[in-house]
Amino acid sequence: MTTLLAGDIGGTKTLLALYRSRGELLEPLCSRRYSSEEWSDLAPMVQAFLAEARQTGAPDAAPAAACFAVAGPVQQGAARLTNLPWQLRAKELSGTTGIAAVELVNDFAVLIYGLHHLGAAQQATIRPGSACGDEPLLVLGAGTGLGVAYGVPGPNGLTAVASEAAHAEFAPRHQAEWDLKQWLAADLGIPRVSVERVVSGTGLGHVARWLLSQRHPDGDHPLQQVSGDLPAAVANAAALGDPLARDALDLWLGAYGSVAGDLALTGLCRGGIWLAGGTAGKLLMELRSPVFRRAFLDKGRLAAVLEPMPITAVTDPAVGEFSAACRARMLLGAVS
User: Fold this and answer.
1) Which residues on neighbouring strands pair with residue 160, listed in sequence order?
2) Comparing 106-115, 266-275, 288-297, which segment has the lowest mean pLDDT?
3) Greatest CA span in the chain, whole angstroms?
4) C-alpha triplet 254, 198, 211: angle, nearest 5°
């Protein structure tokens, strides 16, 4: 039996999990969530987790490999988290924990390594198509922000290529998006509006706030009384038939579909497009709508290039840990 350690490390929380690898199968053994700020570094957290796991029946030997998904850029095996004073180095983690093979990967790029190993319960079809196994693929996900990564096939399986495409300039397609962009720049006090300001869970809230400011300047709409999760409230209100919420969601879906089409063309992602992030599993029916599909394909002469590309939603909330485990297994050369 081969055990693998997977980690999903963020400024607020860190998720650690042990998996058992049996051929093509990955079986979760145990997992735990930690408050990142309560630890001085990742190594002592890992040591504490492994000690606790052994007490509950996990093997005494160190895991054969480990992959840690990190909320930040990774260069030459090192990473510094944006919102946490940790400086991580794969070689140092290997020496301290006794795990021979250790790798740090950007927390969105790591999803590339799990996509081809997802089970039926971890995914859902958004748009059928015909994927080419030897062509690049794209994963993007609207959550708090917008994550983007490409997967490039090679002799040793997929290589994940991290991207900051979410911070490219948002390009309005029509008058409503232009007006939204101008309002956002003024409202947020920023000189430019990136794609992520609109195409993200947070962006759905921004779209709703703009429409509310235009149509209900006196603050008499129920959504203007929401003090918590505005994007979730907008989605719920749209499902119940609220016209403004429906318009906000449709504008957001159109922008999301258009950006997905642009990014798919950028990488010629004939291997398929995958939608992850917090909104993927929650808005399945909306993502299957004609609004998203038309915006995805609306690329003039290049629509025929996009037409065969399948789009799949990742619905498993633990896909980060699962993908890190898949990458850890790849480090052993067992499965690509």
Assistant:
1) 151
2) 106-115
3) 65
4) 80
Beta strands in the chain (DSSP E): 2-9, 13-22, 25-35, 65-70, 74-75, 78-80, 87-89, 101-106, 123-127, 137-142, 146-154, 157-163, 273-276, 311-314
pTM of the model: 0.90
Query: Which of 27-31, 167-171, 260-264 has the least mean pLDDT?
Result: 27-31
Q: How far apart are the first and last CA of the chain?
A: 18
Phi-psi domain of 135 (left: phi exceeds 0; alpha: psi -120 through 50; beta: other)? beta
Cβ–Cβ under 8 Å, residues 122 and 301: no
User: Which backbone phi and psi does 287 adopt, to 5 degrees?
Assistant: -70, -20
- The DSSP letter of residue 58 is -
CATH superfamily of 2-111+317-331: ATPase, nucleotide binding domain (3.30.420.40)
Best CA proximity match to 151, nearest among 272, 42, 57:
272
Q: Which amino acid is at 289?
A: S
* CA–CA–CA angle 300, 305, 310 (5° rounding): 120
Q: Domain 165-314, what fold?
A: Hexokinase; domain 1 (3.40.367)
